[in-house]
Amino acid sequence: MGISVNGVDVADREIEAELVHHQQAANPVQSAVHEVILRRVLLQEAAALGIQADDEDDRIEALFAQEVKVPLADDEACLRYYMSQPERFRSGDLVEARHILFQVTPTAPLDMLRQTAELILAELQARPERFEELAAQYSNCPSGAIGGNLGQLGRGACVPEFEDLLFRLQEGELAGRLLETRFGLHIVQVKRRVAGEVIPYATVRAQIADELQRQAWQRALHQYLHILVGRAGIEGITLEGAQSPLVQ
């Protein structure tokens, strides 16, 4: 493919080997090429710094450990985070919810599915009383048979993105946008909320510190990757950003 990194050619076989890990990407070939290039940049940087390890993944991890440093989250930052998200730090919160699921399948491409889901959402915004009828007609979830009703849900009962939306909606509120999860596209409504109890700051302080630390490390890591990519001599392709499964 005529691609090189700092004067070293990237073999087609490397890209072919990586391609099998990117079949779900919007552009599998591009995603695989970017991954191979980014890995090459990281390994060259590790070699330049004299970092040794048993295999390539360990060398990359050692490079990150040496070069990407972030300060520990202090108590002020943790407390500010705790105070800014009171709804998150509660125990026993319940929501009674319902949804309409538009499942992505090979015979129902995402774009076509999204158009249909957007039309149904617009109809429900205008005529919310049709929720049960439309759930029975369109939902690919077994709950469609009972009007999309999911019953009472507590924290931890759903995938994170679904839970996050559920616990941000007010009682009776219909989400104003489609929610996309690995299951497909969802129209979501919270029918009722049951408030739990506030979790004391001292109980969740360590959890908050870990989360803030992880967020700070991710930001620092992405900045580091952009710097490495920006100064690398990459020929034959333009590497758009440094997003990669390597940094999840």
From TrEMBL:
Top-level taxon: Bacteria
EC number(s) stated in the UniProt entry for this protein: 5.2.1.8
GO molecular function terms noted in the UniProt entry: peptidyl-prolyl cis-trans isomerase activity
Pfam families: Rotamase (PF00639)
Protein name in the entry: peptidylprolyl isomerase
First-tier enzyme category under EC: isomerase
Organism phylogeny: Bacteria, Pseudomonadati, Pseudomonadota, Betaproteobacteria, Burkholderiales
Similarity comment: family membership: Belongs to the PpiC/parvulin rotamase family.
Reaction catalysis annotation: [protein]-peptidylproline (omega=180) = [protein]-peptidylproline (omega=0)
Keywords carried by this UniProt record: Isomerase, Rotamase
Record has Protein transport as a keyword: no
PANTHER family membership: PEPTIDYL-PROLYL CIS-TRANS ISOMERASE HP_0175-RELATED (PTHR47245:SF2), PEPTIDYLPROLYL ISOMERASE (PTHR47245)
Residue ranges occupied by any PpiC domain in the UniProt entry: 92-192
